[in-house]
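Field reference: sequence -> structure
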Amino acid sequence: MSRRSIHRWRDRYLEAPTPRALCDHRGHGYVSAWDEELRAVLRAALERSPTRYGYRDLEWTVPLLQEHLARWGGRRWSDTTLRRQLHQLGYAWKRPRYVLLPDPRRAYKMRRIRQRVQGFGPRVALLFEDETDLLLFPPLRACWARRGQPAEVPLSGRNARRVVFGAMHVHTGQRLLLARRYQRGDDFRAFLRLIHEHYRGWQVALLLDEDPSHTAGDSQGLAREYGMELLWLPKRCPELNPMDHLWGHAKDDVCANHQDPSIDHLVDAFIRHIHGLTPEEARRQAGILSRDFWLKGECDI
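Structure field:
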């Protein structure tokens, strides 16, 4: 180490007396070996599956990218360099989530439903129908907890399950609910009988998904016997059903992060909570009063 370098460090520290002042910096003449051509190779690899390049892996990892770039340029880059380049390209290491592929005929089915709803008269009760599973072991939601301590939800006993059938009137917000042990054709037909008893003298139109319990021949036959019209929502599009949004809010308020004494106690609390909402609250939580509700114009909401 030369005396000149030591004096330069001393002068730099006297100008700014912090440890950072003594850090070495690359000069303006430094040329990085990572050029645009290599960055383009990395970008092209990330846009395709590793299987397209003959690898057995399904996803790219840093070691696999090191191997791939070494095969292309003959140099094996460090983990730090590769991660820095990945971050600069806008990539982050994250866990994927499941995404339902929408119905390819979604737009067509929505258009058909809108046309049908526009033709309904004043004595038609338009209802959205759906089911939800209630489990004794509660769903987990984010909550406040002390830093450094895990947020825990105590569990005891064995898990249990019930199915709640629900329907809501689009215009009045009136809700009908029925708890059953299973979600089979017999259970759905029991719910159809409940709807029929409640809306005697009305023509009922049900918007619902194509669950096997709904599409079963006996279920459709009972609906025809009662004069109910079944309007099938697009497949794998739960966001179109307001009941799905209502279920989510109710589970956040009643079920999350807390195990009830029994499954029957949970079902009673869940149904009591939904029935306790005012019609306006129920329609707002279900998204019917939203300006983006997909049947807003057809239902004059």
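Note: The mean pLDDT is 92.
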